[in-house]
């Protein structure tokens, strides 16, 4: 018997994570991909690619995604330009550390870097990470928003995340996917 159903191929998505060292790029990716967290810091040297397979999006459909998560080590900004990192990206996540305001203002440099290489429209979101260590949240969170470069000041695309406590990690990724993935017909 022949089967009339075609094998369904997963849609492939490339998401790049940018931001200063130690802000939690690797941690967010590991939390999303493997639901793991490591307390001990190990710098990402160069670039590392993890995948999330068979991610269903939009929820309730049978559309499966294969998401490539490109983890760019922070020192890359200061190295030779590597345009291949940016080839074919669907989306970018700008990551900063809420406890280091410089990492928030520095997103300006990462934005500039990506603009040099990507001329088409891509989805994006900001992860202001390590929200678990913040006390007196309200005033600090408002201040953090103001520190963001103007172009990234779109509240619906800014997420206060914790890779450690698994806060807003799914929401961050869904926020991105909602910009780039349509429901299957
Ligand atoms: N409290 C807390 N610590 C975190 C969180 N996310 C990451 N960390 C810690 O912060 C440190 C740096 O995290 P990484 O994920 O390695 O940072 P990175 O941005 O990948 O750094 P580079 O690879 O150097 O660019 C590690 O010690 C993590 O355990 C978080 O949400 N909360
Ligand atoms: Mg890293």
Please tell me about this protein's structure:
The protein has 185 residues and is of the alpha/beta class. It has one domain: 3-Layer(aba) Sandwich (Rossmann fold), CATH 3.40.50. The protein has 5 helices and 6 strands; from the N terminus they run βαβββααβαβα. The chain has helices spanning 25-34, 101-105, 107-117, 137-147, 169-180, and strands at residues 11-18, 47-56, 64-72, 91-97, 123-129, 158-160. It has a 6-stranded mixed β-sheet, sandwiched between helices. A hairpin with a 7-residue loop joins strand 2 and strand 3 (64-72). The protein is globular. The structure holds guanosine-5'-triphosphate (GTP) and magnesium ion. Magnesium ion binds next to helix 1.
Structural class: alpha/beta
User: Class, according to the CATH hierarchy?
Assistant: Alpha Beta
Tell me the Rg in angstroms: 17 Å
Q: In the CATH hierarchy, what is the superfamily?
A: P-loop containing nucleotide triphosphate hydrolases
Task: Report low-confidence residues grouped into runs of 5 or more.
Answer: none
Percent helix, as a range, is 25-40%
User: What is the N-to-C order of secondary-structure elements (H for helix, E for strand)?
Assistant: EHEEEHHEHEH
For the termini, the CA-CA separation is 27 Å
Ligand inventory reads:
guanosine-5'-triphosphate, magnesium ion
Structural shape? globular
Strand percentage lies at 15-25%
Major sheet characteristics = 6 strands, mixed
List the strand order in the largest sheet.
2-3-1-4-5-6
Count of helical stretches? 5
Instruction: Tell me the number of structural domains.
Output: 1
Overall pLDDT level = 90
- CATH architecture verdict: 3-Layer(aba) Sandwich
What is the CATH third-level topology name?
Answer: Rossmann fold
| Count of beta strands | 6
């Amino acid at each position: 018997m022949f089967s009339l159903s075609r094998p369904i191929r997963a849609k492939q998505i490339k998401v790049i994570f940018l931001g200063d060292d130690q802000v939690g790029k690797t941690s967010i990716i590991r939390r999303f991909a493997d639901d793991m967290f490591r307390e001990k810091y190990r710098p990402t040297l160069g670039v590392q690619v993890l995948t999330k397979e068979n991610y269903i999006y939009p929820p309730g459909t049978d559309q499966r995604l294969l998401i490539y998560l490109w983890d760019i080590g922070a020192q890359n900004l200061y190295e030779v330009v590597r345009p291949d990192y940016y080839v074919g990206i669907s989306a970018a996540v700008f990551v900063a550390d809420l406890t280091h305001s410089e990492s928030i203002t520095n997103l300006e440099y990462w934005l500039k870097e990506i603009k040099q290489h990507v001329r088409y429209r891509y989805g994006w979101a900001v992860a202001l990470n390590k929200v678990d260590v913040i006390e007196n949240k309200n005033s600090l969170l408002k201040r953090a928003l103001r520190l963001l470069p103007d172009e990234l000041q779109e509240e619906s695309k800014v997420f206060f995340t914790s890779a450690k406590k698994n806060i807003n990690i799914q929401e961050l990724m869904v926020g991105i996917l909602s910009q780039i993935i349509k429901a299957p017909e």
